Amino acid sequence: MNGSLPEAARAAGAGRGSGPLLLGVRHHGPGSARAVRAALEAASPRTVLIEGPQEADALIALAAEEGMQPPVALLAHVVDEPGRSAFWPLAEFSPEWVAIRWALEHGVPARFIDLPATHTLAWGQEEAPDASGAQNRPDASATPDGPDASGTPDGPEAPETSAPDTSQTSGSGASEEAIRIDPLAVLAETAGYDDPERWWEDVIEHRGVRGSDAFGPFEVLGEAMGALREAYGSGGHERDLVREAYMRLQVRAAQREFGDDVAVVCGAWHVPALRHKTAVAADKALLKGLPKAKVDMTWVPWTHRRLARASGYGAGIDSPGWYGHLFSVPDRPIERWMTKVAGLLRGEDRIVSSAHVIEAVRLADTLAAMRGRPLPGLTESTDAVRAVMCEGSDVPLALVHDRLIVGDVLGEVPESAPAVPLQRDLARIQRRLRLKPEALERELELDLRKENDAGRSRLLHRLRLLGIEWGAPTESRGSTGTFRETWRLRWEPELAVRVAEAGVWGTTVLAAATAKAEADAVAAGVLADVTTLAERCLLAELPDALPVVMRILADRAALDADVGHLAQALPALVRSLRYGDVRGTGTQALAEVAAGLTERVFVGLPPACAALDADAAEEMRRHVDAVHGGVGLLGEVRTEASSAAAGQDPRPETDGTGIRTRWHTVLRTLSAREAIPGVIRGRAVRLLLDDGELVEGEAARLMGLVLSPGTAPGDAAAWIEGFVGGGSGGGMLLVHDERLLGLVDAWLTGVPGDAFTDVLPLLRRTFSAYEPGVRGTLGELVRRGPGTRERAAATGSAIPGFATDLDTDRADAVLPMLRLLLGLDENDADADDATGNDAVGNSANNSDANNSDANDNDLAGVGR
């Protein structure tokens, strides 16, 4: 290792007699990675220089630790502004990662030689938007110079990461644009290929390394890049010039220390610039006066999905899972790949046998031969899988693409890696709760009655407060209880930046979430934001933040005179009262604020609903619905609390009945005032009907009044929209109560022609929200006409809003199942049939039977 590089190696390495060994690579290329390893083994340099931010030198040793599993990324962020950050991702098949590992295994010093991140991040703020924007977005600035290679998200990656600015290049416009987008595309087109990826696979990935030809790939690629840069220059991209000047200075420093026994692993686009002889003074002049920012740097986990363009990150490769396979398998890559695919499909209950694998391999080889390729590539393999294993369908093939071609591999970093205190506390909690971050999206069902699940819920809610969207709540399946929660989890690499950003609020998750909640409460713009925040504080169990939020909530509620704001804030406030049951959180202060807020809504709602235009009326209707739901929930809470404290506070206003009664009074007021828009009046009548507060036939009477000739058609249509519109079950109400449907039908057929055009949009919006089956049933009822409706002549109704007569056939149909469930024998069944017949035929006899045989008559009652 201490001697000079072999002369043969020098001659083959870059076509020169002396100087450092320049290994130009394609980032995230498995062929380049294998070639780098072979070249380093053949050359045995005394030091390895790698393209990357110089501040990461101290982190290189961590790559040798057992806990470091690629894909990983170097993360640099500004200390005072963590959102300004950049990633340098490295996969197992990245040439830079291979060079780092080789240096650590052979005890050779390894250094990063690219422009320090202290300049890169500061420079990004001052550049034009096209450069700075990419650098400062965590999802776009994932490479040393922003987006990796190409300007188009679906194009292949260039050998180098930077994209020249065509406005200052020489040569033809078409060629300049091609180079700016993708230099590989120019080389592929020159070689007669229409697909740059296919050209790269044939030239590099399928080539292999043979004996003494370890430096051949770098010689060829270096010559190609030299020709391109000679023809088109640097593209006038200032960052390229500065970065290359800094790298030349670092290479010279390494040569002074180690002589010419230096290997440089960098993007092939830079090789001609690093080989070019320039004056030291000229390079230093380019670096003079660069802006600076204080930055921190660490390793963070990365994913294959973030390496793929399909996920929005321009890393330069469409198929990281495929590339990882090519790099890791020792031989027969196609056979092993088809075996992986078969295993995946069989795991999804697809019928795939070993015969399918054999036929797929044969077809891939045949396709490669027909297309003139040395070996089957991803295209041939995918075509073979589609034809043989997926039977021509793209549906299972999409699963193969998602799970294998792209993949959900998530890297790991050792605990010794630098991290902000908040990150360390989060990692400790994750281990304690056995909640491991995973790249694959999954659903997590939580039972809040269990201590570990409750802890997981607290953690996820606290992270959401901090803007760390690791999990998103979703609807629980099979249970609607408040003790159930369902989360959809997926860990994205950008969350490491969010954790760093949240570190300004505290050193632990609890402290940071508390401080963030208090700050959000102070900065909240409207009352609804404060009530939502109070709900989130209860979910996250932040006892220190809740008093501050409640004080601000009480102050805002007392000062806010806008009934819309109060109505909008009430539902979240009332929902929060439910969390004390499962989570053991005290909600007395919250209950007092909710009670005061409810009374103010009751008093202010009728005047606030008067004299509104159509848009304001629709918004107020939504507020009425929200208050109705909140009052119902508040009534349940109060009833439960009153039952728990029976005998201590007998006042009726303390239970749920009193507050619901007052709300029904408000709804009656809204339904009767002519100054209130029809959509609100109709909605108030519907809510009263749903709560059983209208006497028999009252809903039909009110609708008949509204739909009378004396009411303007527009107002009547708005009333109908409020009464049966939207997804509130109004369609089923019309299906089951044909009196109401008849009123609507009669009114609609009597609307004058000149007014019909005005009411048509309202009616279309009302009925288009119904499900297709409901619309079809209504159409059939209208087609039959009012004269033949079986129940249209009925004048009474056992239950308001439904049919008037008992359907004995439907009632009797459930009796056999009820007998089976109750375990009744045949004798009981006969007695039940007799009792049921008596109940249908004569109500007085039914009453006598109730006194004589409780079990059978109970069953008959259920049947009715």
From TrEMBL:
Bias type Polar residues, positions: 163-173
A Pfam family of this chain: DUF5682
Top-level taxon: Bacteria
Region spans: Disordered: 127-181, 831-864
Comp. bias regions, Low complexity: 836-864
The protein's name: DUF5682 family protein
Source organism of this protein record: Streptomyces vastus
